[in-house]
Structure formats: structure tokens, C-alpha cells
Amino acid sequence: MIYPAVERIARARRPVAASDDGITLLETVIAMFVLMIFAVGVLPILTHSLTQSATNSEVVTATSLANQAIEDERVQTTCAALTTLNQSVTVRPNLILRTVRTISTCPATFPATVRVKVTVTNATTGALDISLATLVFVTGA
């Protein structure tokens, strides 16, 4: 009977089969090439998603500004208190949003409603981001 320690040494010195050689340099290069093809395929998707995220952020900010301007006008109770205040807000160094309020003419009789429209545009590009309209209930001139 062979001692267990001798048996372990004999197993360790046994020649390795051809299928147990490990990963060759060629296999590694092929794997790197496949990963590179995958990365190049995913890169345009990542670029597009970053661009879309920036656009969505601009629209959300513009919507928030427009909603705030509408709410500022809704609390007014007279035509004289309604303002056509135009303002520019710098969101980021390369993004300036311009808010324009348009108010329809005051009616002759009261109580009545006045149409208020708020438009938010990108001051840098001139592109329209959002346009909201509402009716404001007024009780006097």
C-alpha cells in the first residue's frame, strides 16, 4: 500500500492533459476583440441616452418655470395686477431660459376671465421648450 503523501506527490507530477493547458494568447486576443465589438455597439446607445437626458432636463426646468409663472398670475384678482413680466433664467452656463407672459385684453364687465399664456424658450438657440395657457378669474379692472 502506498502512503497518502506519496500518492499526492505522484498525482502532482502526473503530466497534464492537452485539454488542461489553460487559456492561450490567441484565445485571449479573440475574447478581447469580441468585447471590443460589444463596447463599440453599446457606445452610440450611451451617447444618445446622455443627450436625451440633457434635453429632458431642459424640458422639466422649462415646465417648472412656466408653471410658476402661471401660478403667479392665478393669484391676481384684477386686470391691473396681471403682468407681462418677461424674464431670463440662467440654468447652466450654456442654458438660458427666457419666460414670456402674454395677457389678453381685459373685459369690459366683471367678474370675468382673462387668458394668460406663458412661453418658455431657450435663449441660446431660440428653440421653443414649452407653452402653457390658462384662464385667470378677475373681479375688477
Task: Report on this structure.
The protein has 141 residues and is of the alpha+beta class. It is rod-shaped and about 115 Å long. The protein has one domain. Strands 1-2-3-4 form a 4-stranded antiparallel beta sheet, with helices on one face. Helices cover 42% and strands 26% of the residues. It has 2 helices and 4 strands. The protein has helices at residues 4-12, 25-74; strands at 87-92, 95-103, 112-122, 128-138.
Q: Helix count?
A: 2
| SSE order | HHEEEE
Content-based structural category? alpha+beta
Oligomer state of the chains in this structure: single chain
How are the strands of the biggest sheet laid out side by side? 1-2-3-4
Summarize the model shown.
It contains two helices and four strands.
Notable characteristics:
rod-shaped; 42% helix; 26% strand; four-stranded antiparallel beta sheet; 141 residues; alpha+beta
List the helices and strands and how they pair.
Layout: H1 4-12, H2 25-74, E1 87-92, E2 95-103, E3 112-122, E4 128-138
Antiparallel strand pairs: 1-2, 2-3, 3-4
